[in-house]
Amino acid sequence: MAVTGSGATLQIGKESTWGTAVAGAKIIDFTSESVKLAPDKKVQDSLIASKAAPAKDLMGLLAQGDTAFVLRPEYAGFLFKAMLGGTDTVAANTPVTGAHTHTIPLADANGNLPSYTLIIDRKAAIKKYAGCKVASWSLDAKVGDYVKGSISWMGKDESSGSLASLSPLALQAFKVVSATCTIGGTSYDVKSVSLKGDNKLEDVGQTFASGLYHLEPIHGQRELTVDVEMNYDSAVETLHDNYSITGTVINSIVIVLKSPSIVTGSTQYQLTLTINNVSATVERGISGTGLVTAKLSGSPTSVGATEPVTAAIIDASSSAY
Question: What pLDDT sits at residue 190?
């Protein structure tokens, strides 16, 4: 019997050992997925004639694919830990009692990204994918819309799975209403922000001892980009003059996004993204009689001990992700 996408489920759990599957710990509000097992099949070289190609032999297996999601408070910190990979420093009861701030930077250059098990109920079957690491990710925040993102995964294997018994999602998603974006300490009339991160995940491949499966992938030097669309005015022109045609970096770009849901008292669930020492360019031009907009595009750079990018999440969890 045919099935529809409505009612499908995606759960994710953090592994303590790469490639050792765990149960789901979080439900992800996803809009699409393409996770699959990618087999490597080869045909033996031969001069013997045949009516059709000879049978193929299985030489290797690798799990990979994408998931697209709407960002919600229940798993925002969990996903940013997966995407950035650094140690989650928790400031308990900050900014108020009952709310906790998680600050997550990029993983160290010589560190390891955390790995996860994805469990996907496609209704016709439930499959789990172990050893999944984030190869690349994106986050889009457009005025009047929900905060959306996507992750490209590289994993180890696929097997039959089962769903954990988890509480349904109940909190409202992050949305781009009353959001703020400051560039170099100044607020601008921003219309959208897009972030992309590439962990430069390296497929280590197979060895004699690994059999069909690839070994644990490792990350390289990360590449991050930020694009900010804003209304064009004289202040934006100053941005262009100060940063597009000079070697000066923007000391920080800070984006604050909130969910309407309340952690405690009047404190909302909140995500603050800080991108530091941004080498940027500003493009502007007139294409018609309508509104003139400009686009700032940049990448954070490493300057001393300052973190290139950090995510600070205020939520109700006192445990590190």
Answer: 94
Give the separation between CA 260 and CA 196, rounded to whole angstroms.
25
Task: Taking the CA atoms of 298, 300, 303 and 309 in sequence, report the sign of the dihedral they define.
Answer: positive
Average pLDDT per consecutive 10 residues, the chain (321 residues; last block may be shorter): 85 96 97 90 74 73 93 98 97 96 95 96 95 97 97 95 96 94 93 96 79 86 95 92 91 97 96 97 88 94 93 97 97
Sequence-ordered list of residues with C-beta below 8 angstroms from that of 208, at least 6 positions apart, any chain: none
Tokens matching residue 250: 């923007």
Quick one: 85 exposed, middle or buried, by C-beta within 10 A (0-12, 13-18, 19+)? buried
Tell me how crowded residue 156 is: count the other CB atoms within 10 A of its CB: 26
Local structure of 276: helix, strand or coil = strand
Residue 243 phi/psi, 5-degree rounding, is -125, -30
Amino acid identity of 229?
E
Indicate the length of the chain as a whole number.
321
- Classify burial at 309, counting beta carbons within 10 Å of its beta carbon; exposed 0-12, middle 13-18, buried 19 or more: buried
For position 225, what pLDDT does the model report? 97
What is d(CA 316, CA 74) in angstroms, rounded to the nearest whole number?
9
Closest CA to 30 of 10, 13, 4, 5: 10
Classify 280 as helix, strand or coil.
strand
Query: In angstroms, how far is CA 233 from the centroid of its own chain?
Result: 32
Query: Can you read off the two tokens belonging to residue 144?
Result: 């009047």
pTM above 0.70, yes or no: yes
Helices (H) and strands (E) in the chain, counts: 2, 19
Distances in Å between the Cα of 266 and the Cα atoms of 22, 72, 77, 261, 317 are: 36, 18, 20, 9, 17
